[in-house]
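As a next step, the fold was encoded as tokens, giving this record:
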Amino acid sequence: MGRSAACRRGRAIGFSRAIFRFPRPLDPLRTDYTVETLASQGPAASSIQRVNTKSDPELVEMARRGDLASFGQLYERHYGSMVGVAYAVLADRHLAEDAAQEAFAVACRDLPRLRHADRFAGWLRAVCRNVARDMAGARARSTPADPGESPADASSRDMPTLDAAGGDELQELVHESVMRLGAESREAVLLHYFSGLSYEQIGRVMGISLQAVHGRLKRARRKIAADLKRRGVDSGGDVRPRRL
């Protein structure tokens, strides 16, 4: 199957995990699967053992040659982080999932344009952000904003659970504070606490150093704590939302 046909097939099925027919889904955030781990998934996983052990650049080159399974592994590996990227723009879980899938459809189509295969994660992030921004614009045009509701208030209705110290009211306040962060800080927080990425993975997706990731998250937690304190909530100075 050629690259174009493979991409059309992938787009038609929405890159559903069902196409890989795993007895149970593989964790899209793990990149350390071994042959033994894959074997435990059952016979259906044996066909992807070869691609699971490969790096992103290797998978990209294989996908460019029309190997749909290789692109499927890139999807499995990066889908969770792209949902986090999209959520930072859309503040809606379901729309973020739709945006992430659409981003992979665009990436499959435009993969030949990627000049540096080792920059796939950062390139995919840019694609996903553009898709999410287009969706946000379409939503804004079709849904008049409530003049009495701030963007942070609106986003908190569908924010993933981020629990700093327990209690529904505090969770809502943390939700609002996260969405008040600047775009880059908000994305880093969501990638870590919503998508569950490690500092190293966040660095690869956002194209920044490990030290920069650490500093960005630390500053974000302090800003969240300060925002909570301004509203009469003392979190102890450093909010650490619970990882999902």
Confidence is low (pLDDT under 50) at residues 8-51, 155-165. DSSP finds twelve helices and no strands in the chain. The domain at 3-141 is CATH 1.10.1740.10 (Rna Polymerase Sigma Factor; Chain: A).
